């Protein structure tokens, strides 16, 4: 490391330490992490390799993960703990992404890698990104599944994590592949390879006081087995959402009638209708609508209805069938009937609704369906992106990644050095931070790698 960089890092650490050390009691109480997001592109050149002319593959999102533009994937619903006194953070996120390429004649893939449920642990000035991983070895083809793999080491650059409130956010933290991560990555990269930077934002709150259990009296109303409440989650199609907000359509979407935005999907709630547990059939209508508007585009999907029979479901908008999907037999479990992320296919009439942009048979975003048949049961929660999440996302062209992190400025525009965003103030001290930043800008840059 260049001596000037060491000096600048030390200066910046001292500056941030002076700002972030709590002024109250010596030991602040731990806080609960509840809600938040992690944005990470894994490695941009790997994405390009997967979807390029050699691998001829693709990637797909799992468990409510989304895209945020710039080649980043968004993982959601952070849960864990944060110690503002010691600066330790332990936050786990939901969602996953699967990369496939080099298709084989039997329908499998030589390249098949899933990264799911990432988690970040920071303690003692060190940070690690963990993930559940399933991969097919590059040389032998052996499939390996591992949980909580220490995938990447995070370079915090001397940032003092103490004294944060809510949200706690880190932006563009440099990440490096660990030896365990290299093994789980199926041998595509050696340990020490630079990965894409990691950004996260998590909401923290004081721990909830333990509640005294109270018996729940039986509720009058719907008989057991009949539909009490229902919701259907559907993102329409990821590439369609990116087109709407992209440089061509330059548009967006608006929700009405109770529809909710879950980042990578829309929820149409307050389902009502008929469910037959004996036949496994459903005929339900849902509240809410989403309108997509942009240059040459104005499409509203509303009056959503779902019919299920013989293990197949059809989702309609305003009486027009849009997609079909497999459900299997609709059987309740602990008062909840659930279909999770069922692959969906565009119908011929759905192709007309989309103005011929996609032919019939096109794969659309998966559908999730939940029906409660017991008043004690609850519908699955929407992905919780935490405070300050932008909706809808605005895709941007990938930019060259710098080796250091970028902070979130008060105005929301990125600058060129990373820090823990904790609502810092004080012009004199920030001037010293700016001096450290100026020195860091003169560091050597890592040359681009020709590998995937």
TrEMBL record:
Residues 36-201, 230-369 form the Htaa domain. The chain crosses the membrane at residues 420-440. Residues 1-28 form the signal peptide. Residues 210-221 have a biased composition (Pro residues). InterPro entries: Htaa. Keywords: Membrane, Signal, Transmembrane, Transmembrane helix. It comes from the Bacteria. Residues 202-226, 382-415 are annotated as: Disordered. Residues 397-415 have a biased composition (Low complexity). It holds the Pfam family HtaA. The keyword Phosphoprotein does not apply. This is HtaA domain-containing protein. It comes from Streptomyces crystallinus.
